[in-house]
């Protein structure tokens, strides 16, 4: 009887240990599951409603990814100096403007999973920065020349490159959003104008207004647009183009004023003044 009692006590002890281990295991699983569910939304990749906004070549209105999130391209530039456009590589190199708060200096910038370039310049006072976009090398062709029909051709390799950004903007045309050639830059007038962020799309709901007095601003040289409705832009729209119906770029989206219907942006006159060695890329 003593032996049976001992075996019964040992069995109860074993079952107790197993129950405690099972409880600990369930707790660990619950914690891990909660952590994964919590982390998943932050790590999810959001696809724009218009998938063309994540395709190359990037243009004003394209979505780009930064180490901390995503922003929208505001304007594509090329150098003014012809000495910066001598070689095929130089002629295919592009730069684009986004908001300074999008990424730190030297941060890598991606479109989808492909790296485009990195931040090479930031304004000291305005909410703008410049990203350099290296071109994509083409398969090396052979350039063959025959000086006479009866003579054999002489061939030599010639490396060419494809630009990965273009002077276009996502804008409404004939009832749908398309890549339109940028026609230049301008300033907002009394007519309505548009924003073209990757998240909220093309919104032609804005008109120019003055920034209210004593409004605390994080950057200088900002102007305002008013839409008449709240929640008109998303964080991913930062850096995107402010554009009119003629496809002229008016500015670079900076932010919205909380609890108002106002949007703040850096005017293109200020952008091109600070980046005086650059000009808008052609819409090819």
CATH class of the largest domain: Mainly Beta
Number of strands: 22
Indicate the structural class. Answer: alpha+beta
First-to-last CA distance: 96 Å
Strands of the widest sheet, in order across it, are 6-7-8-5-4-22
CATH topology of the largest domain: Thrombin, subunit H
Instruction: Please count the helical segments.
Output: 3
Order of helices and strands: HEEEEHEEEEEEEEEEEEEEEEEHE
**CATH architecture descriptor of the largest domain:** Beta Barrel
What is Rg?
28 Å
Strand content: 35-45%
**Gross geometry:** elongated
Characterise this structure:
The chain is of the alpha+beta class and about 280 residues long. It folds into two domains: about 1-45; about 50-280, Thrombin, subunit H (Beta Barrel). The protein contains three helices and 22 strands. The termini are far apart. Residues about 1-10 and about 10-45 have low confidence and may be disordered.
């Amino acid at each position: 009887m003593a032996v049976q009692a001992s075996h019964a006590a040992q069995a109860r002890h074993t079952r107790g240990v197993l129950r405690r281990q099972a409880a600990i295991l369930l707790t660990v699983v619950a914690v891990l599951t909660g952590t994964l569910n919590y982390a998943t939304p932050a790590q999810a990749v959001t696809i724009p409603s218009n998938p063309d906004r994540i395709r190359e070549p990037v243009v004003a209105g394209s979505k780009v990814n930064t180490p901390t999130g995503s922003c929208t391209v505001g304007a594509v530039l090329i150098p003014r100096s012809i000495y910066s456009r001598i070689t095929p590589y130089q002629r295919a190199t592009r730069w684009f403007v986004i908001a300074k708060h999008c990424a730190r200096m030297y941060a890598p910038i991606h479109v989808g999973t492909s790296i485009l370039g990195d931040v090479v310049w930031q304004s000291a006072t305005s909410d703008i920065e410049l990203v350099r976009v290296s071109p994509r090398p083409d398969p090396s062709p052979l350039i063959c020349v025959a000086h006479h029909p009866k003579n054999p051709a002489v061939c030599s390799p010639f490396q060419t490159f494809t630009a990965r950004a273009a002077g276009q903007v996502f804008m409404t045309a004939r009832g749908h959003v398309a890549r339109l050639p940028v026609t230049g830059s301008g300033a907002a007038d009394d007519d309505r104008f548009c924003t073209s962020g990757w998240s909220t799309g093309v919104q032609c709901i804005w008109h120019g207004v003055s920034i209210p007095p004593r409004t605390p601003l994080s950057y200088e040289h900002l102007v305002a647009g008013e839409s008449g409705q709240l929640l008109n832009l998303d964080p991913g729209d930062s850096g995107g183009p402010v554009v009119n119906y003629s496809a002229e770029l008016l500015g670079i989206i900076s932010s919205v004023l909380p609890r108002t219907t106002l949007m703040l942006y850096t005017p293109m006159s200020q952008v091109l003044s600070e980046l005086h060695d650059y000009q808008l890329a052609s819409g090819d």
